[in-house]
Design goal:
The chain is an alpha+beta fold and 124 residues long. It contains three helices and four strands.
Length: 124
């Protein structure tokens, strides 16, 4: 990575083939309890083996995120999209759409008199 110095002296990092690789630097700080909390938030039931596997995998993901954050981007202009210079959106031109009676014809329970679609209640 041009302009990026690998912190080879930091614990858990090695410098190989002009790239900086993390060797379970964050994985050691991620605990099984952390994985259990994440699994509970996701409503997942994990075995002991899965917890250990996910602890290592999530640790590797966090270590990679740390590497990405360490890259000097001070000379790179901010963009909202990787193809920011290309016109990715079509021109907004008004055009005819499906007539309301035809749209309501396809509805399972239309409110034809109001011109609306009726849907089942999903909140309280």
């Amino acid at each position: 990575m041009p302009g990026y110095q690998c912190p080879a002296t930091e614990e858990g990092l090695t410098f190989t083939n002009r790239k900086c690789y993390s060797i379970h630097f964050v994985a050691s700080s991620l605990t099984i309890a952390d994985v259990e909390r994440i699994a509970a938030l996701s409503h997942l039931e994990l075995t002991a083996e899965e917890k250990e596997l996910f602890r290592r995998q999530l640790g590797d993901i966090l270590a990679y995120a740390e590497q990405v954050q360490a890259i000097d981007t001070s000379g790179v202009p901010a963009t909202a999209h990787v193809h920011a210079r290309e016109g990715m959106e079509r021109a907004d031109e008004p055009r005819a759409s499906l007539p309301l009676p035809d749209a309501l014809e396809n509805a399972p329970d239309p409110a034809r008199d109001a011109g609306l679609f009726r849907v089942p209640r999903v909140i309280g």
